[in-house]
Amino acid sequence: MDQTIWFCVVQFLKFGPWLMYFHILVFYVLSLLYGRFWLHVVSNSAKHTKYFPGITILKPLMGVDTLLEQNLESHFNLQYPKFEILFCVADDHDPVIDLIRKLQKRHPNVDSRLFVGGRSGILNPLVCSMAPAYEASKYGIVWVSTSRIQVNTDIMMDMVTKLSKPKVALVHQMPFTTDQKGLAAAVEKVYFGATVCKYYLSLHVLGISCFTGMSYMLKKKHLEDVEGMAYFGKFLAEDFYLAKYLHDRGFQFHVAAFPAQQNVASTSIINFKNRMVRWLRLRLNAVPLLSGVFELVTESVPLGIYAAWSAYTVFGLNPFLWFCGHWTVWLILDYIQLKVVQNGPLPFSFSTYIVAWLIRELLYPVVYIEAICNVRQIKWGQRTYYLSDFVNL
């Protein structure tokens, strides 16, 4: 390699961390500002609206969790003039069917139906389960709400009001969690309320498509050209390609005022790690450069090590002290971010936050290494998928 080119490469590597610090600072500022002034703020139009279009709630389910009945009950208790709940279950022996029937008997005045078996020919298990219900839905607005999600009427009214604007095709909730006991629950809350929030909200402010398929509301008419949701069943990351399809056609997305309330009792750090590996593998296949390189150097451990080396090489600073300062500032900023998203007291002490934060940050290198090994293999529930079976994903 020419010495001039090599010199330029070395200089770029030396000053790379400072460019990354600038980007991360921008993300923190944007997400904190949005979280402070727009998240949890319901517009007056949502409070006083007379716009009540019919809404179909698609509820894909598999298995029974301790808090699942509470989650489903929250959907039956929605106070809205015209809506239906369509439950989607893949296996006719799934114990969740008994729970659904029990709740249907408890709430006979709520329009609800059960769809069992899915639609053949669709590889994505979630889309396969929802496709028959989507096609049988009565209304032009569909709300996909996965099994973990707990809802209320304020959330519903906020989302449908935002969706009423002509250019808005999709309204989605930023993923977060309810207040549960235990260290694993604290790790999940720290991850969604600090790490995910930082990018989720800042990218939204910048007009970049970023949403997860946990809880979102859309207009069916915008999917008519591809014959509905079933089209996205050929992708394993159906939410990514659904968003891309709508974004490429010039439609807008809005973030709901209320974060999605994932309400799960039986969680563990191992399950959390496995979930992160699955999501990272999906991202690595969808956007390999962004997830494989950029995401890596925006995490606190890899960037801290990189910046410590740069601080020593360029300025002669103690790399250990630099890393300690780097981590301390990052921990404090994440705590501020988490408090903004929580919008109230946290269910754990600051010392528990520190432990949960350290676990999440130290887990990332493990997640990354595991994800890049067998990157085309995705474990989802009891099944293993190979991405060569899918179109792109």
Question: How would you describe this protein?
Answer:
The protein is built from 13 helices and 12 strands. It has helices at 3-37, 44-48, 68-76, 96-106, 125-136, 153-163, 183-205, 238-248, 269-286, 288-294, 300-315, 319-342, 350-372, and strands at residues 55-61, 83-89, 112-116, 141-145, 149-150, 168-172, 175-177, 215-219, 252-255, 260-262, 377-380, 383-386. The protein has a 7-stranded mixed beta sheet, with helices on both faces. It has a 3-stranded mixed beta sheet with strand order 5-10-7. The model has no long low-confidence stretch (mean pLDDT 91).
Oligomer: single chain
Poorly predicted parts: none
Question: Structural class, please?
Answer: alpha/beta
Q: What is the spatial order of strands in the main beta sheet?
A: 3-2-1-4-8-6-9
Number of strands: 12
Q: What's the SSE pattern? A: HHEHEHEHEEHEEHEHEEHHHHHEE
Query: What is the alpha-carbon Rg in Å?
Result: 22 Å
The percent range for helix content is 40-55%
Strand content: 5-15%
Index terms:
393 residues; alpha/beta; 3-stranded mixed beta sheet; 52% helix; globular
